[in-house]
Each structure stands twice: as structure tokens, then as C-alpha cells.
Design brief:
Layout: H1 2-5, E1 17-21, H2 24-27, H3 40-46, H4 64-77, E2 82-86, H5 89-92, H6 102-117, E3 121-125, H7 133-139, H8 149-165, E4 171-176, H9 178-183, H10 202-224, E5 229-241, H11 246-270, H12 275-280, H13 290-296, E6 303-314, H14 320-326, E7 337-339, H15 369-380, E8 386-390, E9 401-404, E10 407-409, H16 411-429, E11 434-439, E12 459-462, E13 467-471, H17 472-484
Parallel strand pairs: 1-2, 1-11, 2-3, 3-4, 4-5, 5-6, 6-8, 8-11, 10-13
Antiparallel strand pairs: 6-7, 9-10, 12-13
The chain binds ligand GBH.
Ligand GBH binds next to loops.
GO biological process, one term: carbohydrate metabolic process
Protein name: Glycoside hydrolase family 1 protein
Family: Belongs to the glycosyl hydrolase 1 family.
């Protein structure tokens, strides 16, 4: 009985936003329907050899393009007040620019209106990695060295979406996790138009375009007077020195700079890149003009962190200089090493897929969450608080047992959500302005390069029949708000 366990000093504020998330290419399917143009992800799934586990594609995925009414009804039935999804740019502009595809806008009209009819508030991300293929081949997509074409095309897309839905959405995210689309996926020249940008420079050209596009979209939204907060979703983890040596402390600071700080320092601190980027990748790092710095500085209302996990950092065994000279990874000339297992403080760290190569990055580290949230608030001082815009747990070979009719047991994920939300409650009680949490994910879906082999869903999907089944973790998640949110009137059995 959760009520009996309730800690009376904990509570989620009444205006705390919480819900579940998805992203267009991972769930929609219908990739050739109603005028959608191809995105780079259609190439990754269909053309790039040995890139996706099981040669999976998003051609059908969860078929949410057609099943969204039942999907919204299923989350509304549990009392979930927010649904966070992304809009597909190559549906709205099949060629990334030019003619608007009205059919796509009518589709998202109905998706958003259906949410509102069910009293589920939509949260919209404009870009979750699915760049219109035409733009990749026209000028290199995010590797556009003019720093204008991709920015202008993105901002025009943002304008169309803001003007259509601006009064219906409480929280906007311009982009999902720039570090992933700028650094983690290959742009192999045999699949896309060749780029003249050297490999080591590519992440920084892409990141520069991201910051310009994000900043301009933010300024546009404010000048249009659209409702709702506007931010971007940063990817991250809490970064902890392995020992109390100063070398490990410096390695940890390099890790912050080369991950969150790369994008968060310009947006939240001073319109410019952090110190260690300037120190180690100055050859590759474009510069902002004074006007651009002023435009980017302050261009987010909340700090949105996809905050799944934590990692320990330690210094390289050779000197930093030798490490920088030798690294072949363009993203990590910061030369830190990570580890996930720390035997002296092992509480929970090895739960889940830690040992599994499918998701080596993700561990249950809820004990560290309050410190993580303090760190974000203290370092980047967001005006309207910190939101956790994704968190969740992937189980590679999940064995689901029916515990009640149609409800499947997923105890590891249940314990992740329970303990993680306790971490949020502790941070709130200590004065961190946490404003919302969005769980990843509404249901199992195309887990990018992992195909359908890693499952993050709080609902199971039978991909043959498209039938959805709640997992017990979904009830655990909802029950935490039933128990702790001020004024909660959820009625979950
Ligand atoms: C989120 O990214 C995505 O926004 C979402 O679309 C996705 O479904 C969800 O996570 C679950 O994965 O260390 O080489 O194993 C989380 C971002 C994904 C970024 C894994 C780092 C590390 C790959 N992280 N990635 S590796």
C-alpha cells in the first residue's frame, strides 16, 4: 500500500508536469503515407550495411500514425497528464524546404486535438534526429559549412509548426540531444553526398549549426508570442570523479564540458563554448559573432536533461597531451575514461543490462540523482527550472510474465522508476526547482541502431498484431504521482 509508505515531507508541486514520451521515427511507421518524404533514418535502416540490429526499420514500428487515438486513450486511462512526442520534419516539408505538406499538418492537428480532448497535454519536440534526406544531400545537412542554409530551413520549419500549434502546446523542445545526431551516427560518404568537412571537425560544425538554429527558433517563438516554454533536450549523465584526486576531478570537468557543457554553456551561461573545448579542439571549433553570442545566450526557459544514468570518470594513464595527440575519436579529445562499476559503492549499479553490450551506457543510479539535479541548477541556473525530459530503463531480453489480465511484470524497470522518482522528491525537498519528468517510453519502439532488440516501453507491443499491453512499471510510475503530487485526483486501482 503506497499510502502507508508515504514520506510526509516529500511532494511533487501541483503544477509539476509528468508524462510519457516517444519520437516520430521510432513509433509512427507509415513512412510513405500522406506525402512524407524520406529522412536520413530511412537510409540508415534501409541502406547502411550492418548498422541496425536485425535489419530492423521504422517502416511500420508501432504504427502510431494510424493508432494514435487508441494510444492517447490508453495513457489517458491511467491519468497521465502529458504526452511528449516529436513532429516529423520530412512529413511537414517532404523535401525539407519548399512546399508545405498540408496532409501532415492535418495529421498533427488531429494528434494534438485528440490529446486535448482526452485532457492529455501535448509536449512537442521539433527535431528528433530525422533530417529530411534531401537536405543531407543538398548541402550536407548539419554539416553545412555556410551556417545559413540548414539554419534557415530549420527555422522556417519551426515557424510553420509554431504558427499552427503555438497556442496548444505548453512545452516546446527545438531539438533532441544534439550530441547524438552530431556525434554518434555515421554520415558515410557512400550513402550520402560527400562532405568536405574532415571527420574530426564534423561534430563541431554540426553543433555550431544546432546552436544557431536553436537560438533563432527560440527568438522566433518569443517574437511570435507563442505559449509555452521553449528549450532543447540535452543528453547526459551525472559525471562523478572516480577518486578524490585532482586528476580525476579535472577528467570529470572535461567530461561535463565535452557533453552537457558543449551546448548548455552557450545557451545558459555566456553564448560561447566551454573552456576545455576551446583548449582541446580550437582547430575545429567555429566562432560565434558577438551578435550570435547575444542571440544564443539565454535562449532556453528550462534546462531539459535526458537524465538516465550516471558514470564515473578517471584520468588517462598517460599525459593529457599524449592522449589528445593520440585520440582518433573526434568527440572525446577531452581524454577522460569512464567506468560504470565501482565495487565499493555498488548499490544498484549492476542491476539491468549493465553487463549486456546492447545498452552498456545505462545503469540504475538513482542514489546519485539529487546531486545531479543540484549540479544542473547550480551550474546552469535555468530561469524556469530543471526538467527531466527522458529517463527509463531498457531491458534487452525482457521476459514478461502476466501478473493480472493484460498487465505484464517488469520488476527491474518498476524499481528504476520508483527509486528514481524518490530521488526527484529528495531533490525537490532540498530546494531544487524540478518542474517535470517525462518517462521514456510510452511503449516498446524502434530503439535506433538496436532495432527492436532493446525495449524501453512501459507498454509491451506485439509487433505482429500491434496490440499494446501495459507493463507493471507504468502503474508504478503513475502511483508515485498519485501518492505524492499535491491535489492528485488520480484513481488507479
Ligand atoms: C535517448 O537517448 C533517445 O532520445 C531516445 O530516442 C532513445 O530511444 C532513448 O534514449 C533510449 O536509448 O555508449 O555506444 O552504447 C539516450 C542517448 C543513447 C546517448 C546511447 C548515448 C550511448 C551509446 N544515449 N548512447 S553507447
Amino acid at each position: 500500500n503506497p499510502a502507508a509508505m508515504k514520506n510526509q515531507s516529500w511532494s511533487f508541486p501541483s503544477n509539476f508536469f509528468w508524462g510519457v514520451a516517444s519520437a516520430a521515427y521510432q513509433v509512427e511507421g507509415a513512412v510513405k503515407a500522406e506525402g512524407r518524404g524520406p529522412s536520413v533514418w530511412d537510409v540508415f535502416t534501409h541502406r547502411v550495411t550492418d548498422f541496425i540490429v536485425g535489419n530492423a526499420t521504422g517502416d511500420i514500428a508501432d504504427n502510431q500514425y494510424y493508432l494514435y487515438k487508441q494510444d492517447i486513450a490508453r495513457i489517458a486511462a491511467l491519468g497521465v497528464p502529458y504526452y511528449s512526442f516529436s513532429i516529423s520534419w520530412s512529413r511537414v516539408f517532404p523535401f525539407g524546404r519548399g512546399e508545405v505538406n498540408e496532409q501532415a499538418l492535418l495529421h498533427y492537428d488531429d494528434l494534438i486535438n485528440t490529446c486535448l480532448e482526452y485532457n492529455v497535454q501535448p509536449i512537442v519536440t521539433l527535431y528528433h534526429w530525422d533530417l529530411p534526406l534531401y537536405l543531407q544531400n543538398l548541402y550536407g545537412g548539419w554539416l553545412d559549412e555556410s551556417y545559413t542554409d540548414i539554419v534557415n530551413d530549420y527555422v522556417e520549419y519551426a515557424r510553420v509548426v509554431f504558427s499552427r500549434y503555438g497556442n496548444k502546446v505548453q512545452h516546446w523542445f527545438t531539438f533532441n540531444e544534439p550530441i547524438v545526431f552530431c556525434g554518434e551516427y555515421p554520415y558515410p560518404e557512400n550513402y550520402f553526398k560527400a562532405t568536405s568537412v574532415p571527420v574530426k571537425q564534423q561534430p563541431y560544425v554540426c553543433g555550431h549549426n544546432f546552436l544557431l538554429a536553436h537560438g533563432q527558433a527560440y527568438r522566433l517563438a518569443k517574437s511570435m508570442g507563442i505559449n509555452g516554454t521553449v528549450s532543447f533536450k540535452n543528453n547526459g549523465a551525472y559525471r562523478i570523479p572516480l577518486t578524490n584526486s585532482s586528476a580525476d576531478a579535472l577528467a570529470t570537468q572535461r567530461a561535463w564540458d565535452f557533453n552537457e557543457g558543449w551546448f548548455a554553456n552557450p545557451v545558459f551561461i555566456n553564448g560561447d563554448y566551454p573552456q576545455y573545448l576551446k583548449e582541446y579542439v580550437s582547430d575545429f571549433l567555429p566562432e560565434f559573432t558577438a551578435e550570435q553570442k547575444a542571440m544564443i545566450n539565454g535562449s532556453a526557459d528550462i534546462f531539459a536533461e535526458d537524465a538516465y544514468t550516471a558514470q564515473f570518470y578517471f584520468a588517462p594513464s598517460n599525459t593529457i597531451e599524449a592522449c589528445v595527440a593520440n585520440t582518433s575519436d573526434p568527440l572525446y579529445p577531452g581524454c577522460f575514461n569512464t567506468t560504470y562499476t565501482y565495487s565499493d559503492q555498488d548499490g544498484g549499479w549492476n542491476i539491468g543490462p549493465a553487463a549486456d553490450p546492447a545498452a552498456p551506457w545505462l545503469h540504475k543510479t538513482s542514489d546519485w540523482l539529487p546531486a545531479f539535479l543540484h549540479y544542473i541548477q547550480d551550474t546552469w541556473k535555468p530561469r524556469e527550472g530543471v526538467a527531466i525530459t527522458e529517463f527509463g530503463f531498457g531491458e534487452p531480453f525482457e521476459e514478461l510474465k502476466t501478473i493480472r489480465a493484460d498487465i505484464l511484470s517488469d520488476p527491474i524497470r518498476s524499481s528504476y522508476y520508483h527509486d528514481y522518482l524518490e530521488g526527484v522528491l529528495i531533490a525537490l525537498s532540498e530546494g531544487v526547482n524540478v518542474v517535470g519528468t517525462i518517462a521514456w517510453s510510452i511503449f516498446d519502439n524502434l530503439e535506433w541502431a538496436e532495432g527492436y532488440s532493446v525495449k524501453f516501453g512501459m507498454q509491451y507491443v506485439n509487433f505482429t498484431t500491434q496490440e499494446r499491453f501495459y507493463k507493471a512499471s507504468f502503474f508504478e510510475y503513475v502511483n508515485m504521482f498519485k501518492t505524492y503530487q499535491q491535489g492528485s485526483n488520480l484513481t488507479i486501482a
